[in-house]
Amino acid sequence: MPFPRASSNSAFIVGISLSAPTYLLYILKASGLSAYGVDNPEVFAGIVTYGLLTLLLFVIDIRSLAPKALKTSIPWVYFPTNQAGWNYLFRLLGRVLVWLLGIATGAGLLAALQYLMKLF
């Protein structure tokens, strides 16, 4: 099985998959159906760990932690020195923004669900 590759689609899906369980835990605790919520230290640690791992794997792309496009003549220093470096940084920034959009979309959809649950 090949290693996952970061794309805007994977960033959006990971954003939704981060916000959906978090918001569902909030809804379940607020309605009294669960004793555990996001304020529980173990649950919070799990959510933060999941968020950082998925950010590293599906948004930043673990293969690009030291990209050739940002390599300089100084060892261990990475900075955009040409157009390829700037293109790489803008693609990365775009994936991070799509990830944040996925988080906002998931939270917004579940907020609407919570509102509908209160109506009925």
Automatic annotation (TrEMBL):
<keyword id="KW-0472">Membrane</keyword>
<feature type="transmembrane region" description="Helical">
    <location>
        <begin position="96"/>
        <end position="117"/>
    </location>
</feature>
<keyword id="KW-1133">Transmembrane helix</keyword>
<feature type="transmembrane region" description="Helical">
    <location>
        <begin position="43"/>
        <end position="62"/>
    </location>
</feature>
<protein>
    <submittedName>
        <fullName>Uncharacterized protein</fullName>
    </submittedName>
</protein>
<keyword id="KW-0812">Transmembrane</keyword>
<feature type="transmembrane region" description="Helical">
    <location>
        <begin position="12"/>
        <end position="31"/>
    </location>
</feature>
